[in-house]
Design a protein that fits this description.
By secondary structure, this protein is of the alpha/beta class. The chain is built from 14 helices and 17 strands. The structure holds ligand 7TS.
């Protein structure tokens, strides 16, 4: 039987691609354990954006001159890269947005306002980032639809046994869930949720902002209807994200933003909309940012998403083993094999902000807060947690420094 070697990743050499690590903070090398908030940028992405501005920059889709054509090619090339990255059928289904948040708002407003009403049900999970919770809560409120919640168990995994009870007495129209939880790292069974949504005639909306940096995201395999991404979470620039949507749904939807670039014809009496994807891309787009987004996808693609996932699993397994030995620590989330490289935790009686500040003095950057997941924080009965998150440039010494730092916090404040 053929044995296929699992892809491996050399975090140390990858790290050399990231200029941010050349600096010190509080006299210490940077241990950046906050990639779930936003990932650092490799030289390859920075260079691609700089080269684009220096040699190919103009506004897109309007110039007849050579430079504008070159800019348009680069922008549309980036759309093609994203299309392949999520295994979509057509670039017409890829809409550039400012980030995942705008992509999810686009769906909630453009699809939700025209398709939801009294008696309808929108299902979200208790694990959602506010970006995939608040828009649905708001649009449900405006249309008279009801918002229902898929709860989680104590390990932070979705409770799927009572899904049919959840559906009782309502007309399920939307199921919206993240693929990976940014707060506790849970990898959610999106295929199963999609199948359940479709059984009920609902659409499936996937927030892949936290999944796409870490594992392959394939809209065909997930069998969803919409999927949202952010560039900055996968080593690309801020200010750009993407929505993938099924063409037949996008065709029927009203535009989200109105103005230049998204029209077919404007007269005093009425305006008609442009074709997909431009109908949803009003105004000058994030042109250089899209080029950087594509460079980031190429970069993580060269490293390999399977290798990145494997690397994070090793780190998270090792870190969790050592962290649970710390007296008074509570960690949240499922076992390592069902989570991405994220560990949320609390130290008994010590405020997360104090933990993060003391770690910072040793150059260790973690996030402390509610991670834009207040319903999840309520479920765990806490106002905030500490969160350490790992990525392709994380090296094992950073876990050592985190664990040593936590022991120090305990000595100082425990
Ligand atoms: N969905 C998930 C699962 C996320 O992790 C984030 C960002 C968003 C949506 C929103 O992304 P944006 O690019 O539109 O802002 N998550 C985080 C975080 O965990 N800490 O800061 C941002």
């Amino acid at each position: 039987m053929a044995v296929t070697a699992k892809p491996k990743l050399d975090a140390r050499s990858i790290r050399a691609d990231f200029p941010i690590f050349e600096q010190q903070f509080h006299g210490k090398p940077l241990s950046f354990l906050d990639s779930a908030a936003s990932a650092q940028k490799p030289r390859q992405v920075l260079d691609a954006m700089r080269a684009f501005y220096e040699t190919s920059y103009a506004n897109v889709h309007r110039g007849v001159y050579q430079l504008a054509e070159r800019a348009t090619e680069a922008y549309e090339g980036a759309r093609q890269t994203i299309c392949s990255f999520v295994n979509a059928d057509s670039t017409r289904e890829i809409i550039f947005t400012r980030q995942a948040t705008e992509a999810l708002n686009l769906v909630a407003y453009s699809w939700g306002l025209n398709n939801l009403g009294p008696g309808d049900v929108v299902v979200v999970t208790e694990l959602e980032h506010h970006s995939n919770f608040v828009p649905w809560q708001y649009i449900a409120g405006r249309t008279g639809a009801e918002l229902r919640l898929i709860r989680i168990d104590d390990a932070g995994e979705l409770e799927l046994d009572n899904l049919d009870e959840l559906a009782a007495g309502g007309n399920i129209k939307v199921v919206a869930a993240n693929y990976v939880s940014n707060s506790i790292g849970t990898v959610n069974p999106v295929e199963r949720l999609s199948a359940w949504a479709h059984e009920h005639g609902a659409i499936m909306v996937v927030d892949a902002a936290q999944a796409a940096p870490h594992r392959p995201v394939d809209v065909q395999a997930l069998d969803c209807d919409f999927l949202a991404l952010s560039s900055h979470k996968l080593c690309g620039p801020t200010g750009v994200g993407a929505l993938w949507g099924r063409r037949e749904l996008l065709e029927k939807m009203e535009p989200f933003n109105l103005g230049g670039h998204m029209i077919r014809k404007v007269t005093l009496e009425r305006t008609t909309w442009g074709e997909l994807p431009y109908k949803f891309e009003a105004g000058t787009g994030p042109i250089a940012e899209a080029v950087g987004f594509a460079a980031a996808i190429d970069y993580i693609g060269r490293v390999g998403l399977e290798a990145i996932e494997e690397h994070e699993q090793t780190l998270v397994t090792n870190a969790l083993e050592r962290m649970i030995e710390i007296d008074g620590i509570v960690t949240y989330g499922p076992p390592p094999e069902r989570r991405a490289g994220i560990i949320s935790f609390n130290l008994d009686g010590i405020h997360p902000h104090d933990v993060a500040q003391i770690l910072d003095l040793d150059g260790v950057a973690i996030r402390a807060g509610h991670h834009c997941c207040q319903p999840l924080m309520s479920r765990f009965n806490v106002a905030a947690t500490n969160r350490a998150s790992f990525y392709l440039y994380t090296v094992p010494e950073e876990i050592d420094r985190l664990v040593e730092g936590l022991h120090k916090v305990k000595r100082m404040l425990g």
